[in-house]
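Milestone 3.1: sequence recovery, worked example.
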């Protein structure tokens, strides 16, 4: 779903999912249902498909009332703003590209989503800062540019900021990512596929993580 920094190689046209028609996506459910979100013309930006978002929020139980949400690599902001629409108590969206961050901020203001905060920052650096500040989140979305292959690095970074029963959404075009998750201290709670998009909800497996760190 996310924009790509200049140093990342571009994905090939055949591997890149199509952008939503007209450069916009819609919020699927909740308070802001059917509201349009602009999709800035940024390298590597590919919003999570509607049917994938619908599936993920069905898994999460439709309402996120009272939960704290972190959306890394926020891109168009579709995942984080969908969470706000469904009642999340707070939503922090991290987007490296200043123009992307500005578009999300404008959308949140237009929607009146006062629980939303947007930071124009590198996702991994921002997460380490959140760890130092003692922040904890109930739901984390990880959907970096596929070409950056930052999914595992991001999962390692968010491990300390995830609440004990928290869930992490991860999206990739490489199904083999899921083969490495248990060794990294994660259990796959739900998993799906839509075309080239592989996605899952993960929970921490503290026993596996402790074993990996103390062989």
């Amino acid at each position: 779903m996310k924009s790509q920094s200049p140093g990342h190689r571009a994905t090939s046209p055949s591997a890149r999912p199509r952008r939503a028609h007209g450069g916009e996506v819609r919020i699927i459910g909740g308070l802001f249902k059917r509201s349009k979100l602009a999709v800035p013309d940024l390298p590597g930006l590919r919003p999570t498909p509607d049917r994938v978002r619908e599936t993920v929020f069905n898994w999460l139980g439709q309402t996120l009332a009272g939960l704290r949400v972190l959306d890394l690599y926020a891109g168009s902001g579709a995942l984080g703003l969908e969470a706000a629409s469904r009642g999340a108590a707070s939503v922090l969206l991290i987007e490296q590209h200043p123009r992307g961050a500005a578009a999300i901020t404008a959308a949140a203001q237009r929607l009146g989503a006062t629980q939303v905060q947007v930071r124009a920052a590198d996702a991994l650096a921002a997460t380490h800062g959140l760890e130092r500040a003692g922040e904890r989140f109930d739901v984390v979305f990880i959907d970096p540019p596929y070409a950056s292959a930052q999914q595992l690095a991001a999962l390692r970074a968010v491990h300390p900021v995830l609440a004990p029963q928290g869930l992490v959404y991860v999206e990739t075009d490489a199904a083999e990512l899921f083969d490495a998750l248990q060794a990294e201290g994660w259990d796959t709670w739900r998993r799906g596929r839509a075309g080239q998009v592989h996605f899952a909800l993960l929970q921490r497996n503290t026993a596996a993580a402790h074993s990996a760190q103390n062989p």
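The beta strands are 24-26, 36-38, 68-72, 90-94, 116-119, 137-142, 162-172, 186-194, 197-204. The two ends are 36 Å apart (CA to CA).
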